[in-house]
Amino acid sequence: MSNMVVFGAQWGDEGKGKIVDIMTEHAQVIVRFQGGNNAGHTLVTGGRKIILHLIPSGILHADKLCLIGNGVVLDPDVLCREIDELVKGGIAISPVNLGISKKTHLIMPYHKALDQAREAAKSGPDKIGTTGRGIGPCYEDKMARIGVRAGDLQDLDLIRHKIDKALLEKNSLLQNLYQQQKIDSREVLEHIRPLAARLVPYLTDVSHQIQTARENGHTVLFEGAQGVQLDIDHGTYPFVTSSNTVCGNASAGSGSFYKAQQVIGVVKAYTTRVGQGPFPTEQTNSCGEHMQVQGAEYGSTTGRKRRCGWLDLAILREAVRLCGPTEIALTKLDVLSGLDELRICTAYEYLGQKVLYPPQEENALKKVLPVYEELKGWKEDISMCRKLDDLPENARALIRYIEQALNTPVRIISVGPDREQTIR
Question: What is the pTM of this model?
Fold first, then answer.
C-alpha cells in the first residue's frame, strides 16, 4: 500500500486529470476531496477526449472504485448528466465503481441563481470571474449549517423542510437586492425528486470504504481540483475558489487521514489562470499567444480563454511549502516547443525588496514585478518522446532547473494530451 495525493501547484488547469488517470493504474480507490463542477479534468486516451467535472478521473479504468468525498459540493443535475455521457461512451457506471459520501453537500437551483445574480451585480475590479455554478453559495450554506446533504436524498420530507428554510433568505436577497424572480420551493422539490431516485443507490460511507481498502492493503489516490493559488485561505484572495485546495484538505474532505507516501504536485511548464485576479507573469504578446494556441488553453468547464504567462517559481515555492510534494509531474512541456527563448520568474520585487514567495497582503500580487532568468528554447517537436534522453538538451535543462529551484524531483513529464504521450 502506497497512498497518493495529486494536487495542482498553480491556478488550476495544470493537467491533474491526466496525471490521476495515469497513476490510477497503481491504485484501487480514487477519492475526490474538494471543489465542485467549477473544475474540469480533461482526459485524452486513444485520441478520445473526455471531460469530467465531478467523477474522479480514475473512472476510465475498470475494477477501480471512485468516491466523491464530503468536501465536494455536488450538483445532482451535473452528476447525472456526467454519468449518462460516460455510459453512452461505453463506460460502465454503477454503485460498484462509484460512490457518493452521504455527507457531501448538494448544490441546489437557488445556489446557482444567487451566484449568478451576485456576479451580474458586480462591475469592474469587484468581479471575481466565478463560473456561476453555485459553488460559493453552497459552501456558505454548509458553514451556516443549513445545507442539503446527499444523505438527505433518502428523506424528501427533510429536504422539503430545508428548501423552505433556505428560500426564506434566498428569495429575500434575489427579489429585494438583485431584482430577480422568486424561486418556488415546490418546483425545487419536484426538480430534486427524480434526481434523488437516481442517486440514492450511489450513497455510501466514504470513510468506511477508505478504511476497508487500507485494511485490504489497497492503495488510495486522493484527487484534488483547482490549484494551490485558488485555495480559499492561501490563494490570491479574493480571486479564489470556495474550498481548501491544498492537499492537507484530503483528510477533512474524505473523512480519512490520507497518510500518503506519494504527494504529486502537478506543474504546467508555463502558467495559466482563468477569470479575474492578479497574474504577475502574464504575457499579452506573441509568447502568450503561442502558449494559448499551442496549449489549446480554453477552460474545460467554462470554455473561456485562459490567460497565459511564464513559469512562476514564487507561486511554486508556495505550493511546495504548503503541500510538501515528494515529486513533480510536469505537464504541457510540448507547448513550449518553437520558442527561441524561455523566461522563468525566479522572484518578485515588492516594495523595494526581493521576495521569493507571494506577499500575503491582499492585492499585493498586483504590485509585484517579476524577476526573470532566461533559458534557451528548442524547435523540435517533442510529442513523440517517450524517454528523458529523447528530449532536446534545452528541454532537459529546463527540467533540471525546476528540480533544483524547488528541491523536488520531476518524475512524470507530459509531452501531449494523450495518456501515451508521457515520460516516466
Answer: 0.93
Q: Are residues 290 and 402 in the same domain?
A: yes
Residues 189 and 206 in one domain: no
Helix (H) / strand (E) element for 138: namely: helix 135-143
Quick one: pLDDT at residue 176?
A: 95
Which of these is catalytic: 21, 41, 152, 290?
Answer: 41
d(CA 383, CA 14): 17
CATH number of 410's domain: 3.90.170.10
Phi, psi of 287 (to 5 degrees): -70, -45
| Pair 82, 88: CB distance under 8 Å | no
- pLDDT band at 126; cut points 50, 70, 90: low
Please confirm, yes or no, whether 41 is among the known catalytic residues.
yes
pLDDT above 60 for 148: yes
By C-alpha distance, which of 36, 43, 46, 37 is closest to 20?
A: 43
Weakest mean pLDDT among 35-49, 72-86, 99-113, 290-304? 35-49
Domain hosting 289: range is 267-423
Helix axes 109-121, 156-172, angle to 10 degrees: 20
Q: Which of 13, 75, 152, 231 is catalytic?
A: 13
| CB 62 within 8 Å of CB 91 | no
pLDDT (tens digit per residue) in 265-308: 999 999 999 888 999 999 999 999 999 999 999 876 667 889 99
Q: What is the CATH number of the domain that holds 10?
A: 3.40.440.10
Q: Does one domain contain both 33 and 172?
A: no
369: left (phi over 0), alpha (psi -120 to 50) or beta: beta
218 in catalytic set: no
Asked whether residue 241 falls in the same domain as residue 276, the answer is: no
